[in-house]
Amino acid sequence: MNVPSNLKYTKEHEWIRQEGDIAYVGITDYAQSELGEIIFIEIETIGEKLAAEEVFGTVEAVKTVSDLYLPVDGEILENNPKLEDAPELVNDDPFGEGWLVKIKISDPTQFNALLSDTEYKTLIGA
């Protein structure tokens, strides 16, 4: 199971990569493997300000639909346009081309409460 050390994680299996006051959010390698083949991503929160742990969208796999939770407070700036035609990028490259949304972070101190790679590996038993 791939768990990059340069990211922070949530117990709901999202990852976040901070770049100044902007961050990218996606689901983890573990999450995509548990979901199976992803066939559709729905994100209708562009331009909205959401609190940490609020639902920002859903991911639909062959057998299930799962909510997506924002790791920190922020404004949803954009979703990944590539996922409209190729949702399988989340399966193929969850930490790269398969990112879900770009956000403007409201409170950078919230990163301290997120899981490190070591803590996330413990959570998933890796």
Description:
It is a single chain. By secondary structure, the protein is an alpha+beta fold. The protein has a single domain, classed as RNA polymerase II/Efflux pump adaptor protein, barrel-sandwich hybrid domain (OB fold (Dihydrolipoamide Acetyltransferase, E2P)), CATH 2.40.50. 15% of the residues lie in helices and 35% in strands. It has three helices and nine strands; from the N terminus they run βββαβββββαβα. It has helices spanning 29-35, 89-92, 117-124; strands at residues 8-9, 14-19, 22-27, 38-42, 49-50, 55-61, 65-69, 74-79, 101-105. It is globular, with a radius of gyration of 13 Å.
Under CATH, the homologous superfamily reads RNA polymerase II/Efflux pump adaptor protein, barrel-sandwich hybrid domain
Give, in spatial order, the strands making up the sheet with the most strands: 1-2-3-9-8-5
Report the count of strand segments.
9
- Principal-axis shape: globular
CATH class: Mainly Beta
- Report the β-strand fraction as a percent range: 25-35%
Q: Determine the structural class based on helices, strands and strand pairing.
A: alpha+beta
Please tell me the CATH architecture by its name.
Beta Barrel
CATH topology: OB fold (Dihydrolipoamide Acetyltransferase, E2P)
The helix tally amounts to: 3
Radius of gyration: 13 Å
Largest sheet: 6 strands, antiparallel
Average of the residue pLDDT scores: 96
Number of domains: 1
Range of helix content: 10-25%
Order of helices and strands: EEEHEEEEEHEH
Distance between the terminal alpha carbons, to the nearest Å?
7 Å
